[in-house]
């Protein structure tokens, strides 16, 4: 672990009563790390490889934090809504918390009724990641987190070595590179970055007036448990159509709870292409998202309720939105979906690129 300047908080897990064994190793510590380029500033913690703040100016030059989160690392260790974390080994849902791979049936640890969500009760968002590299100076400042997921963790087969690199590029650009290498057994891998964005500022209220464009002509319908039916359907004529930019509030009332759906992105999976654009007219902030993944989960924070966040602000439903690029949910149980299986020696590669700007 890199030496952390005094202005950063370095918090021993022991202070939270979370230690498992010796704290002698630097990797057994949880810290807060900053990357800064001009007036673009981000902070992270190695608990869950989490983004804890993204500060950038609005059209008047006033800085604001545009991701939901907490005041302390300790609050992240008790988080139940995945604020800013890397989720996995398999993001999203797997039906019945089970699947069959190469003739072997695997029973996972359910944590949402009979299903498994975001890797189980203790997924990648609830573990300590090692700080493999930390460079907060020069042309491309970056931080790299790594984690070794053991064979059988939450029921998943095979050991996996995982890393995520956050790098500041160009003018207000954030690159997120997630990798996972399967060791001795084939296993599903589907990582996602689970930040809740509010371009008006994390404490500005709801995101219903934000304008969204999603570059997807199709989506994967779900049942009442938010498990995909296996079908792929056109967004045309449905509330899921964001091919043309429009405000969230103009269509959200056509759905019972709000948006929580996977989109089938247009273009060629494996190649970096535009997935979504979010605009906040009041602040002028714009976020463009690119990815090499086949899908993106659009979630409008429907189930946030009385969550005490930064500066004592209390987040309610629709306080933030998630645009989680990913493989399709429950792909292990739908052969017609793009495979998320990684075989021994293979490396899963997931790239996201955020480009932020301001419009007058």
From TrEMBL:
EC number: 5.1.3.3
GO biological process assignments: galactose catabolic process via UDP-galactose, Leloir pathway; glucose metabolic process
Active-site annotation: 194, 324
Coiled coil: none
Molecular function terms from GO: aldose 1-epimerase activity; carbohydrate binding
Key word Isomerase present: yes
Keyword Secreted among UniProt keywords: no
CDD domains xrefs: galactose_mutarotase_like
Signal peptide (from-to): 1-24
Catalysed transformations (reactions): alpha-D-glucose = beta-D-glucose
Binding-site residues for beta-D-galactose, renumbered to this chain: 92-93, 194-196, 260
Keyword entries, A-Z: Carbohydrate metabolism, Isomerase, Signal
Pathway: Carbohydrate metabolism; hexose metabolism
Similarity-based family: Belongs to the aldose epimerase family.
Protein name: Aldose 1-epimerase
Organism: Rubroshorea leprosula
């Amino acid at each position: 672990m890199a030496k952390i300047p005094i202005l950063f908080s370095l918090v021993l897990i022991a202070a939270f009563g979370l230690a498992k064994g010796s704290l002698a190793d630097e990797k057994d510590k949880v810290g807060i790390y900053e990357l800064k380029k001009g007036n673009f500033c981000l902070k992270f913690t190695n608990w869950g490889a989490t983004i804890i703040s993204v500060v950038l100016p609005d059209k008047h030059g006033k800085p604001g934090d545009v991701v939901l989160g907490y005041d302390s690392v300790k609050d992240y260790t008790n988080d139940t809504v995945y604020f800013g974390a890397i989720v996995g080994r398999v993001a999203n849902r797997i039906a019945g918390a089970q699947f069959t791979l190469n003739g072997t049936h695997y029973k996972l640890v359910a944590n949402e009724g009979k299903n498994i969500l975001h890797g189980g009760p203790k997924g990648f968002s609830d573990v300590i990641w090692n700080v493999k590299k930390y460079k907060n100076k020069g042309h491309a400042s970056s931080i790299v987190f790594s984690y070794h997921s053991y064979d059988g963790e939450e029921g998943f087969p095979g050991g996996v070595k995982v890393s995520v690199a956050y790098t500041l590029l160009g003018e207000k650009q954030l690159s997120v590179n997630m990798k996972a290498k399967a060791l001795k057994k084939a296993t599903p891998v589907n990582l996602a970055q689970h930040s809740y964005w509010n371009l008006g500022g994390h404490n500005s209220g709801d995101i219903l007036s934000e304008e969204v464009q999603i570059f997807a002509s199709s989506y994967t319908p779900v049942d009442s448990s938010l498990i995909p039916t296996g079908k792929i359907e056109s967004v045309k004529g449905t509330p899921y159509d964001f091919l043309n930019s429009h405000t969230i509030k103009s269509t959200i009332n056509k759905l019972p709870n709000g948006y929580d759906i996977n989109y089938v992105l247009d273009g060629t999976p494996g190649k970096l292409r535009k997935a979504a654009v979010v605009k906040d007219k009041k602040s002028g902030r714009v976020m463009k998202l690119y990815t090499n993944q086949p899908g993106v989960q659009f979630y409008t924070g429907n189930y946030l309720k009385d969550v005490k966040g930064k500066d004592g602000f209390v987040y309610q439903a629709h306080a933030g939105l998630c645009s989680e690029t990913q493989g399709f949910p429950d792909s292990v149980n739908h052969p017609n979906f793009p495979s998320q299986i990684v075989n021994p020696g293979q490396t899963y590669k997931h790239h996201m690129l955020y480009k932020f700007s301001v419009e007058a």
